[in-house]
Design goal:
The complex is a heterodimer of chains A (about 280) and B (about 190).
Chain A lengths: L1 H31 L6 H9 L13 H9 L12 H12 L10 E5 L20 H6 L16 H5 L5 E2 L17 E2 L9 H5 L5 E5 L4 E3 L7 H7 L9 H5 L5 E3 L4 E3 L9 H5 L5 E3 L1
Antiparallel strand pairs in A: 1-4, 2-3, 5-8, 6-7
Helix pairs in contact in A: 2-3, 2-4
Chain B lengths: L1 H13 L10 H6 L4 H30 L8 H23 L1 H7 L2 H4 L4 H12 L4 H29 L11 H16 L8
Helix pairs in contact in B: 1-8, 3-4, 3-7, 3-8, 4-7, 7-8
The chains are: A alpha+beta (about 280), B mainly alpha (about 190).
């Protein structure tokens, strides 16, 4: 009995001593080895979304916070946070002006779903846009349009992209196999744009009402053969536009969203339904 | 000298703590989705295991054994390892922000890793002396890192592979882990008893 109690006492003392000793070392270390950080960085970091998406060009939100505090980055650098974040940060660091740009969202400029744009062959390999591209330049007849293997969807960190399931060849129905972007969730971080091997994802103003849903550089006659919604370069839209908002560089029209009044005349005249209302 | 070499080799290949002894499975599955992350984690584990092995050996030899309180081994080791990792983190934070960035969040994560504790306890069970304990800890860390990096490499490829829906994600990872483990069984017998 006495032996047991002695063991208990020794255990308690030994463990307490180890604990106290470790504690003392830690306490000493925490005062000796403190690193002074600017409290402002933490404050700014709290205002940032902390998604670490990298859209601002810095590897993480904390890196951006540091850059903002040290004046190397603009207070409105965070694309994700947008206006409210920029204002809050400006207030915190005491910057006067907030230089805001118009809110952009990503956009997949292609309407060639399986029922509208055919395929050269049935691809059964790795479901990845880059991999498909290696096999005869992709399985899609159109060499500019969306391949539909969803690299952009995988790259999206904000759950803003969805890929409607692909139907088998020849099966009718609505749009499939072209990513849908939720413009409320999209923060224009550019991850999908970089992930697309065909470089056919781009930005559009969030407020845009119309969209040229094609990026082809092929001639009209060929486009008409392979895709039901491809732009054939007929320039009817340019003629229909009363506000001089449509210009041409290659085949597809370019819309100047500053001039566009969303009168939808171009949408009405487009024979291929390439220009669509959104 | 030869014994130390054998200890390291054994800890890396024959008695790999993850694939043969099945310790530290949690980070093995959790941090092995990308090679970069697994290298960071591996470095932290090597660092931590080596130090923990040495310190716990001293605790055992100079406190637990003389006072005949060996049964406190587990709790004492946990306490010491946790404090040690915390201390190292503070020091690194001060002297090398670059190293801190590299090890990052992994250092506090492995404080209570069972592989670290496992190495410490197995060192005592194997009656290793101080130097042998440290070397075993180092070898175990390297073995852990190797397993982690192999796994991460395989998983990065798995992302590209057409895997049946039911097996996607964790199930296929477990299957791969078990196959890796079987493969490592081939090293048993490398060192004759």
């Amino acid at each position: 009995m006495g032996q047991n109690i002695l063991t208990v006492i020794i255990s308690v003392i030994a463990l307490s001593l180890i604990g106290a000793f470790s504690g003392a070392i830690l306490a000493y270390a925490s005062s000796k080895f403190t690193v002074k950080t600017d409290p402002m960085v933490d404050e700014v970091l709290k205002l940032l979304p902390r998604a670490n998406c990298g859209a601002c060009g810095f590897p993480s939100c904390s890196a951006l916070a540091e850059a903002i505090v040290s004046g190397k980055a603009d207070v409105a650098s965070c694309k994700v946070g947008g206006e409210s974040t920029a204002k809050a940060i400006a207030e915190k660091v005491g910057a006067g002006k907030v230089d805001l740009k118009e809110k952009l969202v990503s956009c997949v400029f292609c309407g060639g779903s399986t029922d509208k744009c055919g395929r050269k062959f049935e691809y059964k390999g790795i479901p990845d846009c880059f991999a498909v591209l290696l096999v005869g330049g992709g399985d899609k007849l159109c060499s500019f349009g969306c391949l539909g293997y969803g690299n952009c969807v995988k790259a999206c960190k904000f759950d803003a992209m969805k890929m409607p399931a692909r139907r088998s060849l020849g099966e009718g129905g609505g749009n499939d196999n072209i990513p849908i972007i939720d413009k409320e969730k999209c923060v224009a971080c550019g991850k999908c744009i970089n992930a697309c091997p065909r470089h056919m994802i781009g930005y559009r103003p969030k407020s845009a009402k119309i969209l040229v849903n094609c990026v082809t550089k092929d001639k009209g006659a060929y486009v008409r053969k392979i895709c039901k919604v491809g732009c054939i370069g007929c320039k009817l839209c340019q003629k229909a536009c009363k506000y001089d908002a449509i210009s041409f560089k290659d085949v597809v029209p370019i819309i100047d969203y500053n001039k566009c009044t969303a009168c939808l005349e171009c949408v009405k005249v487009c024979p291929q339904k390439t220009i669509i209302e959104i | 000298m030869e014994k130390l070499f054998l200890i390291i080799l054994s800890a890396i290949l024959i008695n790999n703590y993850v694939l043969i002894k099945f310790l530290g499975i949690c980070p093995f599955v959790g941090v092995s989705s990308q090679i970069d992350a697994s290298i960071g984690m591996g470095a932290a584990v090597i660092f931590c295991m080596t130090l923990a092995s040495s310190v716990t050996w001293a605790i055992q030899a100079y406190i637990l054994t003389p006072f005949k309180i060996d049964f406190l081994q587990t709790i004492a080791f946990i306490l010491v390892i946790a404090a040690l990792v915390q201390f190292i983190e503070m020091v690194i934070n001060k002297i090398s922000p670059t190293l801190k960035q590299a090890l990052g969040i992994y250092l506090p994560l492995i404080t209570t890793n069972c592989a670290v504790l496992g190495v410490a306890i197995l060192n005592i069970r194997s009656n290793y002396n101080f130097l042998e304990s440290s070397f075993n800890g180092f070898g175990a860390g390297v073995g852990f890192t190797m397993a982690l990096i192999i796994m991460a490499g395989i998983r990065e490829r798995l992302d590209m592979a057409p895997i049946p829906k039911a097996l996607k994600g964790v199930p296929i990872t477990f299957l791969v882990a078990s196959l890796l483990s079987v493969a490592f069984l081939g090293f048993v017998g490398l060192i004759p008893e």
